[in-house]
Fold this sequence. Notes:
The protein has 9 helices and 7 strands; from the N terminus they run H-H-H-E-H-E-H-E-H-E-H-E-H-E-E-H. It is α/β, with parallel strands linked by helices. The chain folds into 2 domains: 1-60, no CATH class; 75-237, Type I PLP-dependent aspartate aminotransferase-like (Major domain) (Aspartate Aminotransferase, domain 2, 3-Layer(aba) Sandwich), CATH 3.40.640.10. It has a 7-stranded mixed β-sheet with strand order 1-7-6-5-4-2-3, sandwiched between helices. The two termini are 35 Å apart.
Amino acid sequence: xxxxxxxxxxxxxxxxxxxxxxxxxxxxxxxxxxxxxxxxxxxxxxxxxxxxxxxxxxxxxxxxxxxxxxxxxxxxxxxxxxxxxxxxxxxxxxxxxxxxxxxxxxxxxxxxxxxxxxxxxxxxxxxxxxxxxxxxxxxxxxxxxxxxxxxxxxxxxxxxxxxxxxxxxxxxxxxxxxxxxxxxxxxxxxxxxxxxxxxxxxxxxxxxxxxxxxxxxxxxxxxxxxxxxxxxxxxxxxx
Length: 239
């Protein structure tokens, strides 16, 4: 467990100042491609036998530092950054779900997220039941045999209703599905949903983490607490 406090994590997590560049500030690596030592090195990277940079769409040194920093702030084991908050939500759900699957979601959601769940995903065969998040039992009561995730916002946007994440996480655990929490409005400075049972935390970095309206971004943070081999997610365990 790190003894660093929030401000130190926000400034320094993920950045190794002893690297061969010795930079104090995080460099911006604009390269899309990377050099391989030899064909064996390239083969090992592409087969994931060893870690390293392959192609910026997959990983990038600058993104990697941001991902490590966000994971540290939220108390997760790893993170992936995306082009926007909606991209983070879409990437998460399309990774976990397939046609015929079902979501139980809070009915107090950001409008863009609501439209993604209510309009876009049904075109791909993924249905959502929206429930009043004020009663945590509404989630398990709405769950179906094909339900794969529970989805909420820690603070509903724009109503700012405060959800009982811990109680909802217990409902998700009882049904053996992950609880996904969009923590955009609260930010990790005010709340760490993982401490209350969230399995995946999502952010629109465009909002408060960016803080000044100059950049788009999204993030997905994995708590490392969900059993993906429980039989409900064959994409994770089968060829």
